[in-house]
Design goal:
about 75% helix; single chain; mainly alpha
Length: about 230
């Protein structure tokens, strides 16, 4: 009987390790998507900056002398047009719209990947529950996206990771729930940023959005490095 139970636990552990690898593959997809989204956000910012670029300051003595010294018809037309090239203006409007559509698509794809991660986390929890009642399940509240940094640090301090072969499956499940929580919070931030983008967005806002997107404030690099060591 004991041999059967040991085999059951062993099979469960092997299954959970496979799920964990799939989970981290999903994390890679979300990371790659986030990098592409960052480029789109910067593109939106640059296009809007061009559209809002102020005309040449005619009150500057130096600029006034340059204009008078090069008073060609082409320069006069350019100044009358608000110092904007009409073709470049159209190109930047199109670029801005394209970047916004790309970011909306990014959020849609990220949501799908996030749901897949949640499904894998649920599979791990169910596997633990089915195999051994003494192995506590990961509760819903552990990965609802509301874990704060203090809670994450406390959870990590209680875990001792060496390699995937020796790790306790409940610790592995807890690690997955923590990573899921971080990624979900990152996704929610990105979703709010994309929803806030419009022609009225200030350049200061856009600068902050780009900075926060690239900094990934909800992702704890130490935790992610620990997780990747377990699948290497």
């Amino acid at each position: 009987m004991g041999g059967i139970e040991n085999k059951s636990v062993s099979d469960m552990k092997e299954n959970i390790l496979c799920i964990f690898k799939d989970f981290m593959t999903g994390i890679t997809k979300i990371d790659e998507l986030g990098t592409a989204g960052s480029r789109l956000l910067i593109g939106f910012q640059q296009a809007l900056e061009y559209i809002r670029r102020p005309p040449i300051d005619g009150t500057s003595e130096l600029i006034d002398k340059v204009i008078k010294a090069n008073g060609t018809e082409r320069l006069k037309v350019y100044i009358e047009a608000g110092c904007r090239n009409s073709l470049h203006g159209v190109q930047n409007v199109n670029k801005m719209n394209s970047c916004k559509l790309g970011l909306v698509d990014h959020i849609s794809k990220a949501k799908v990947f996030l749901e897949e991660l949640e499904g894998l986390l649920g599979d791990v929890t169910n596997s633990i529950q089915r195999t051994d009642g003494d192995l506590f399940p990961i509760s819903e509240k552990d990965y609802d996206g509301e874990l704060n940094d203090h809670a994450i640090r406390n959870n990590m301090e209680e875990m001792v990771f060496s390699d995937s072969q020796n790790i306790d499956v409940t610790q592995l499940a807890a690690l997955m729930s923590i990573i899921y929580s971080m990624v979900k919070r990152e996704y929610l931030m990105q979703e709010k940023i994309v929803s806030a983008l419009n022609l009225k967005s200030s350049l200061g806002e856009l600068e902050s959005y780009c900075l926060m997107w690239s900094l990934r404030p909800f992702i704890n690099d130490d935790i992610m490095h620990q997780a990747w060591r377990l699948v290497s």
